[in-house]
Amino acid sequence: KNVRVFPVNTRLSRHLTQNADCVVEIQQAIGKDGLSESMYTSIHQCVAQLKVKSAGAIQFRIAYTPEGRAVVEKLHATGEFKELAAAMGYSRSTVAETLRLPDQ
Question: How far, CA to CA in Å, does 5 sit from each of 13, 55, 71, 80, 87?
Answer without folding.
Answer: 14, 13, 23, 18, 16
